[in-house]
From TrEMBL, chain A:
InterPro entries: FAD-bd_oxidored_4_C, FAD-bd_PCMH, FAD-bd_PCMH-like_sf, FAD-bd_PCMH_sub2, FAD-linked_Oxase-like_C, Oxid_FAD_bind_N, Vanillyl_alc_oxidase_C-sub2. Keywords: FAD, Flavoprotein, Oxidoreductase. Residues 1-182 form the FAD-binding PCMH-type domain. Gene3D superfamilies: 3.30.465.10, Vanillyl-alcohol Oxidase, Chain A, domain 4 (1.10.45.10). Its cofactor is FAD. The keyword Repeat does not apply. Pfam families: FAD-oxidase_C (PF02913), FAD_binding_4 (PF01565). The keyword Flavoprotein applies. It comes from Neoroseomonas alkaliterrae. NCBIfam families: PRK11282.1. This is Glycolate oxidase FAD binding subunit. SUPFAM superfamilies: FAD-binding/transporter-associated domain-like (SSF56176), FAD-linked oxidases, C-terminal domain (SSF55103).
From TrEMBL, chain B:
PROSITE patterns: FAD_PCMH (PS51387). It is an enzyme of class 1 (oxidoreductase). Gene3D superfamilies: 3.30.465.10, 3.30.70.2740, Vanillyl-alcohol Oxidase, Chain A, domain 4. The keyword Ribonucleoprotein does not apply. Its cofactor is FAD. This is Glycolate oxidase. It comes from Neoroseomonas alkaliterrae. The lineage of its organism: Bacteria, Pseudomonadati, Pseudomonadota, Alphaproteobacteria, Acetobacterales.
Length: 391, 481
């Protein structure tokens, strides 16, 4: 374990980075380290944590905005929102069980990883709701992008560039999100389907209906294969819409309606990768493809000795399997062949250091990536090698 | 007036040679060089600024776009991308030594996939063209800027265009899956695809809204959505702007997210009513148009809830549309707002700041004071759900002093937006119009950070020059690696 710096404020983060920039000494960047096992391990003598920067700094329920320092634990934010009947729109996964960590994710971590849950298919990704950020770039400068209003196209959108950059371009210190009222009620239509292809056809029919499906997943369980379609809204709407979806699903298989409690449990599990029931030694991948290609990814996972379920209407495959380079290569190849993308979400350190954990970028894009990295972190000290070897 | 950089004499002197080279890349009638036919390209939706370009080139393929950009890069020629030329911020304003790349000939719809809910279209397809291609099957493309009949998806991507329904459906950035991106060096890069959330840096997010500073987009993969069963509007008029603002807060606090929530102030109500005869109450200080979606029963349920909320705020008038026709009638005045103001004033500037919604009463009061101070009328329309304010400043373009005052008035409004915690532009973009105000919102080192990213894409600063970044201090080189 390297030496950990955990300053109590933004000025401390800035000073630590300016110092690292001056001495050209790399820093591993994290919040609570809950996703340290995600992507590639960073080789750095020192770790810079944002966990000392906590607290909600602004919350205006009637304006649908909340700001918090980057190290604020996500559950703290969720609790504050719940008190006012609101929620995080992208429904980010709680990865504690998968990574075997105790500390919850921080807001900065979840945004830096752009992690989104089932509601992504209907309401957008984590990055879609980042309205503004403050971050420290690789020379120690504090930079603001975006703001605290819902609509803003002033200047380059560095919020989106930083979201999903895993701390390699800058260290976010404060984040403002758009939030929404949490729906009053929910229900899930469960459809028994004969196979994955039929299941994704059912999901597509549900998402192509006018009933506002906000979760669409395909599970392969002891009860056979099930297509799941969630409706969230005011109670009378949920009753009406679930009825309409059941009607639409009649052609796809036998149906039943899971009530609000069961529905909440179903989607929390899907959000967190729980249906994989992955053992400690197994690796986990997330593959994103067009929904109709989902069954092919499931089949490829099975052929490689793994197993999978689908979220996002069939377009997101959660896969667990043997943690070998061979299995990784098969899954990466299947994602590429389907025109999609993959992430080695969890795996032993040796595997994560040995393989490309994300798809390679074509050479002109890789060249741009190096130049953009240099524009933000000229000495290359922030999280070197976190996303790609040598980058 | 906003300053434009002096043309490079070397480029002007090489005009014939440049035109010949472009004609070799885009043969036939793909290059426009004569003065009469260049005239329509001298301006865009910000008609106060005009400059005939060196030449216009109208490529028909991504390969031609790439070849034109490579040529310009190798020869140090400035490039101005253009879609339909509807930018209200001067985003497509040419320079005398710049080549305009018009994408209107790239107007094919390449793929529609209803099962996977995406469409692949060329940059020159109009915004409404996407919806028209899928509406027969019950689908639509969500972002709906006012110019949607004319504006092109490539321009929408470059400006991250919004519309009246963003509160529920988001802006362009939230509805994209992929783009074909062409760099100034002529490299063609596929970003994203038909899937969600490509792993790695969010290039799609950075490019969207980059106003042509980073590269051009020739193909776009958009998400298409199933249309709701139906939609219906209601009108609520109040005695004061604070009261209307409080009603908006109460609606949001009740958990309802209307698909549209539009606010008009008194001058706007009067202008629209005179134009459209929509039955708007002329004694109101502020009026809301609220639209909800769903089945007829769901619409009734939501409209009744909203009506009950509005009744707590002593409304002057509450009118719930019973039919689609009545709904259209309520919208008629609002949709014609710009035309209506155009009838009572020879010219107007349409501003586009965003403010925290709670600041609306204060901001409207200050705008009223400025209106008196500048001696110019102003009408305000406001996307109340998302805080995007469109003051329409009335002036007379034939009177140079009137135009100068209108620009100063507009700049003061935008400064006020930043002061109360908002921003310079919600959906129209910075362009040339708000370029010199960027230093109001950003510190010098923050602008330099953005400039360094621009340099990473466009080392010679040839792409859409004189827009977005104040001229002083640009370009900024990348730090040595």
């Amino acid at each position: 374990m390297s030496e950990v710096l955990a300053p109590a404020d933004e000025a401390g983060i800035s000073a630590a980075i300016a110092d690292a920039h001056a001495s050209r000494e790399p820093l591993a960047v994290e919040g609570n380290g809950s996703k340290r096992g995600l992507l590639r391990p960073v080789q750095a003598a020192r770790t810079l944590s944002t966990r000392g920067l906590t607290g909600i700094t602004l919350y205006r329920p009637s304006e649908l905005v909340i700001s918090a320092r980057a190290g604020t634990p996500v559950p703290e934010i969720e609790a504050a929102l719940a008190e006012k009947g609101q929620h995080l729109i992208a429904e980010p996964p709680d990865t504690r069980a998968l990574f075997g960590t105790e500390a919850p994710a921080t807001l900065g971590g979840i945004v830096a990883a752009n992690l989104s849950g089932p509601r992504r298919i209907a309401w957008g990704a984590m990055r879609d709701h980042v309205l503004g950020i403050r971050f420290v770039n690789g020379t120690g400068e504090v930079i603001r992008s975006g703001g605290r209003v819902l609509k803003n196209v002033t200047g380059l959108d560095l919020c989106k560039l930083l979201a999903g950059s895993y701390g390699t371009l800058g260290v976010m210190t404060e984040i403002t999100l758009k939030v929404l009222p949490a729906p009053e009620a929910q229900a899930t239509v469960v459809v028994a389907v004969p196979d994955a292809a039929a299941g994704v056809r059912a999901l597509s029919a549900g998402l192509g209906s006018p009933y506002g499906v906000s979760g669409a997943a395909l599970l392969d369980g002891p009860d056979g294969m099930q297509a799941l379609l969630r409706i969230e809204d005011f109670a009378p709407s949920v009753a009406y819409r679930a009825g309409r979806v059941v009607h639409e699903m009649a052609a796809h298989g036998g149906t039943r309606i899971a009530d609000a409690d069961e529905s909440r449990g179903i989607w929390a599990a899907i959000r967190d990768g729980a249906p994989l029931a992955a053992t400690g030694g197994e690796a986990i991948w997330r593959v994103s493809v067009r929904p109709s290609a989902g069954p092919g990814i499931m089949a490829a996972a099975r052929a490689a000795g793994g197993r999978a379920y689908l979220d996002w209407g069939g377009g997101l495959a959660w896969i667990a399997g043997p943690a070998t380079e061979q299995v990784h290569d098969s899954i990466a190849a299947a994602a590429r062949a389907a025109g999609g993308t993959f992430t080695l979400f969890r795996g032993p350190e040796a595997l994560r250091a040995a393989v490309a954990v994300l798809p390679e970028e074509p050479p002109p894009l890789a060249a741009l990536a190096r130049r953009v990295k240099a524009a933000l972190d000229p000495a290359g000290i922030l999280n070197p090698g976190r996303m790609r070897a040598g980058g | 007036m906003i300053a434009l950089p002096a043309p490079k004499p070397g480029i002007l002197a090489r005009r014939e040679e440049i035109i010949a080279a472009l004609s070799a890349i885009v043969p036939g009638d793909g290059v426009i060089a004569d003065e009469t036919r260049l005239k329509p390209y001298e301006t865009d939706g910000l008609a106060a600024y005009r400059q005939v370009p060196l030449a216009v080139v109208l490529p028909g393929s991504t390969e031609q776009v790439a070849a034109v950009l490579r040529y310009c890069h190798e020869n140090g020629v400035r490039v101005v991308p253009r879609g339909a030329g509807t930018s209200l911020s001067g985003g497509a304003l040419p320079l005398a030594d710049a080549v305009v790349i018009g994408l209107m000939r790239m107007n094919r719809i390449l793929d529609i996939n209803l099962d996977d809910r995406f469409a692949v279209v060329e940059a020159g397809v109009t915004n409404i063209g996407i919806t028209r291609a899928v509406e027969g099957d019950g689908f639509f493309y969500a972002p709906d800027p006012s110019s949607q009949l004319a504006c092109m998806i490539g321009g929408n991507v470059m400006m991250n265009s919004g519309g009246a329904h963003c509160l529920k459906y988001g802006v362009t950035a939230n509805n994209l899956l992929g783009v074909k991106f062409v760099t100034i060096e002529g490299e063609v890069i596929e970003i994203g695809g038909a899937h969600l959330d490509a792993a790695g840096y969010d290039w799609l997010g950075l490019i969207t809204g980059s106003e042509g500073q980073l590269g051009l987009v020739t193909e776009v993969t958009v998400r298409i959505l199933r249309s709701p069963e139906g939609a219906r509007a209601m009108l609520a008029a109040f005695k004061g702007t604070e009261i209307a603002g409080a009603a908006v807060d109460a609606i949001i606090a009740s958990g309802i997210i209307p698909v549209a929530l539009e606010f008009m102030d008194k001058p706007c109500i009067h202008a629209c009513e005179a134009f459209a005869h929509a039955g708007y109450p002329l004694d109101a200080e502020a009026m809301l148009i609220i639209e909800v979606e769903g089945s007829t029963a769901e619409q009734d349920e939501l409209l009744n809830r909203i009506k009950a909320i509005c009744e707590r705020f002593d409304p002057i008038s509450l009118k719930v549309a019973e039919t689609a026709e009545q709904s259209l009638a309520i919208w008629k005045g609002r949709k014609g707002a710009f035309g209506a103001v155009g009838r009572i004033s020879p010219d107007y500037l349409c501003m586009d700041g965003t403010i925290p919604t709670s600041e609306l009463p204060f901001v409207l009061k200050r705008i009223g004071e400025m209106s008196a101070q500048y001696g110019l009328g102003v009408a305000n329309v406001f996307h109340a759900g998302d805080g995007n304010l469109h003051p329409l400043i009335m002036f007379d373009a034939n009177d140079p002093d009137s135009f100068r005052r209108a620009e100063a008035f507009g700049a003061d409004i935008l400064r006020l937006c930043v002061e109360v915690g908002g921003c310079l532009t919600g959906e129209h973009g910075v362009g040339v119009e708000k370029r010199d105000l960027m230093s109001v919102q950003f510190a010098p080192h923050e602008l330099d950070q953005q400039r360094r990213i621009k340099t990473a894409f466009d080392p010679q600063w040839l792409l859409n020059p004189s827009k977005v970044f104040p001229l002083e201090g640009a370009p900024v080189p990348l730090a040595a690696e």
